[in-house]
Amino acid sequence: MTSIDHNILTWILLLPALGAVVTALLPNRGKLVQSWALIIALATFVLTLHLPTHFDYNHPGFQFEINRIWIASPPIRYHLGVDGLSVWLLVLTGFLAPIGVLASWRAIDTRVKEFYSLFLLQQTAMLGVFLALDLMVYYAFWELSLVPMAILIATFGRDHGSRASSRAAIKFFLYTFIPSALFLVGILALYARTGTFDYVEMKARLTQGTVFGSEAMWLISLSFLVAFAVKVPVFPLHGWLGDVFSEAPTAMAMVVAGKLGLYSLIRFHLGLFPFESHRVAHWMILLAALGILYGALVALVQNDLKRLLAFGTVSSLSFCTLGIYTFALNGLDGAVFHILSESITGGALLVLFGVMYERYGTYEIERYGGLAARVPRLATVFLLSTLALIGLPILNGFVGEFLTLSSGFAVSHLWGSLGTIGVILSAAYMLWMVQRVFYGPESPLVHRSPARDLATREHLALWPMAILMVLMGVFSPYWIRVIDHGVHALSNTPAVTHNAAAAALVHGRPPVREGE
Amino acid sequence: MNGLHLWLIPVLPLVGFLLNGLLGHRLPKALVSTIALVFTAAPLLLVLRVYDSFSALSLPYIERHAAWIATPVLHADFAFALDQLTLVMLLVVTGVGFLIHIYSVGYMAHEEGYWRFFAYLNLFMFFMLTLVLAENFLLMFVGWEGVGLASYLLIGFYFKKHSAAKAGMKAFILNRVGDFGFLLALFLLIVHFGTLSFADIAGQIAQHPEWQGGFLTAVALLLVLGATGKSAQIPLYVWLPDAMEGPTPVSALIHAATMVTAGIYMVVRTHAIFDRAPLALMVVAIIGAATAFFAATVGILQTDIKRLLAYSTISQLGYMFLACGAAAYSAAIFHLLTHAFFKALLFLAAGSVIHAIGGEQDMRVMGGLRKHIPVTFWTMTMAVFAISGFPPFSGFFSKDEILAEVFRSPDGGPFLWAVGLVTAGVTSFYMFRLWYLTFFGHLRLQPAHQEGLPVAIDDELLETEHSTNGHHHGAAHHHTHHIHESPSSMLVPLVLLAILSVAGGWIGIPNSLGGGDRFGRFLEPVTHGTGAPPSFEQVSIAMRTGAPIPTAEVPPRPEDPRTERKLAGCSVLAALLGWFLADTLYRRKPELPARIAAHSRALYSLVLNKYWIDEIYGFLIVKPLLILSRYALWGGFDRGLIGGGGHFLAGVAQGSGSILRRIQSGNIRSYAGWLAIGAAAILLLAYFGFGAHLHLGVG
User: What is the ipTM of this complex?
Assistant: First the structure.
């Protein structure tokens, strides 16, 4: 271990935060603020790349750990660490940041300093969520990720602080805030009995035996589950996503759904409550299958590009939920992989929507038509992203879909099959949208607007994602090998094995908890 | 034996795709077509090299490269396999594919987006060759979905036309319905076998003679669903006629010779599963026979030359399905081969006709073209005779083998054979109808709205002035047009395919007709049965006595040359009858069709409207789904229930916010404070004993 390995995680956390402070102090001149934010974002990305390149496959558990006492009583520790589960999510967060800056480059033209400060702060908060191994520290980052997001949505929304934007922000805040309060109670209750906030210690103590009566444990696990499920969002808790997607600035919409909630589900719900998570597994699988269908069907009838993608996202993220609650290696590997591909593909589509909005001033599907002939390069990237989203093999979306659906099917033929209908519906809603926007004769709006194909900045934002879609689709073992390192450790918990889960579902009762 | 480099065969066209796709718009047309041709000729040469050294190989030859999807419990590699079946498919795909590439150079010469066309065509070759060479189900699925993508792009090549873009989408989505079945089959295979490798699965099946039906039937039926999508069989065939919106070479390559046969290839490739699932085989046979007959009847009244050929393709694919259902796998592949020749030829010749008269596809305005475009006429004649099943043309031998096998097969037998025979007659009828309408009589200027109302025009210089309403191939040379024979780049492929359509069947002449069925024997190592499952008694006896379970070889079906010759006679008679009818109706008494149509209005319009299947699907599936989504799910549930709940919450928050504004700042940030207060309150409650029964242990 070189010295950088000992404090790399602190650097990853601090860099965007420091960047945010400096941004606030910068003079508002030219594109200075944007360039600065871009540099910080790129530098953070480079730092996160250190993690997978120096990852030690022979080392079980957490790596690059930092574990210091922060507050003596109650014992809150500055405990950070990375394992296979979080490593690509950190890289993903780092990767999407410069793209978010590029996507906001021209779209955000007022209160630029506030925007990029909060943007970078938000970056620190998200990285912190993936890094923190102390529940209190984790919770702080979790909440911190909420606040700048809500402000950014309210102030920098579609029509710059319109009523709709602030309503979306309030909705988002309330949806995530109320369960979070309960979540905090859950954390404190755990602390009261185990005497620690430390994830590793707490996990050890909880799996040792009966720390709690089963009913209390069940309620605590639910407080965790609901907070995470809202953030994912898991159907039917997705009420905030449509408004947020349609109002939020591109850079925010790109990161608001999916990864934080899904990561937390795996790390904390599965990790701390193996028994309770099995108990809800068949409900979660059911909700996931319904979510896949529901999201896709509702996406089919949307007239607004961003709302269409919001429901498409609900559908697509449900694959992850499905995979997670199979407790199978395939399902967990596929779920984490799918978080990555969904973020990239959905991100690319959001950037493309933004690009189109900058040119045509609308997200309404009806007003488009015949775009492919006018802006062929935009159409090419758009089609590639579409194909990735609908899970065409050798693009990234397929790998996760296949692994999660196949293990979902192994656990429950019925719900697995229903979820698989999603592959038909996703093709339907995406290709129908593509047809209405890009093909056919040119619409009046498209016809009278000047044809501006992708500019250099937009190419820079889009092509890295497009290339990753192909690379992740073709060379998936490269990513999965690391992911597996993390989720394997999770499924090593005796209760969390594939057969136990399957048996539980077949016989309608959860596997026996050790010590009970 | 490491020198084969099978991976190069699919990857070379991919290189062509990347070159033309990324740089093509800057390159001159000549260079674009050179790139496309070189990267299609190269795999053809590689395949020929493989063919050359084939007898020296130990088969199946398997080549493994990197892992593609790998977890500790499942892995699928980039692995390619070569056996007799693969070789036949490779020869068809690269051979016919290369010819059609050559043809396209002439056909597409005046088109916008020339580079795009050739890029997509090469992309198709990549996926199709991957499909054929894949050693496991998952890699096959790459090709399977990939050819669907290429098909989507090429059907929608003229994407400015609504109908073309829509047809592409329809094809993709209907194929996805099939893929849904394919995926579920894969999931079941993973559950039961833990692997997706063809060889491993076949091996496990061979080791377990007691496996019969059960999950194997489920897998087989799901695979059949996949095959009905890709190979345009009932109930998913409706995308193929619409796919004719694509340029004609695409129809020839993708929607006749290669991609649509993928379903048949898949069934034959995985026949180890089907052999143990008699129910699935029966379903395949019934679907095949029904589709063959049904599509042929629709073909009778089609007036668009390409759509007629599309229905004929569906019908011929039905024959191949029927053969698969009768477990006559080599007959299915034999017909796949000859069909690739004569159907590609029919499409290319039709393209040459369309090209000659300036983009018109309506046969009612054609006529008398044989003098103007003699090469096209003669080559197409070969194809017409081949598909109608006249000896010694190729189609006769392959179709006859299917019918004979079906007749001999234990279940279905004579009834399915009779369906096939009638279909053969109908096929002959509509093909000769096409032949007469296109090449005989006089060229008709105005599109006649009723069948057989020729408007005579005796002029060398013909002007087709009617509106072509979207039937146009590509851009805009509607108006005046001199009828001309196509350039040699188009005629050479026609002639070569004509030779193959005539002689291509001679490699499989059955024993009864004096041949040695060389083709069937060549495929024998692949298509031979994995052993008829032993009876339950045999297994239980074996288990009690500890004796090995008998693995009965499939007894060769009794060959009866006399019956076979009689059956062949029947098919020839059926074909002659069809020809005779067409001759009567479209040459000797051209006024008759209109009168017959007037006589039986209902039946006529039923067939003319293709049995309203599209409309029924729209009414029964698409409409209800959209209504459910729009009004129940989106309007009712999402905006009403979930949205309403959210608004209620927001309202409460805003209301209480306005009350508390005096002590709070009222903006969103303050809610963070609420969080702490709320949590503290709950903790306090817990401290004073509220909820103590939960044993939270606080305090």
Answer: 0.91
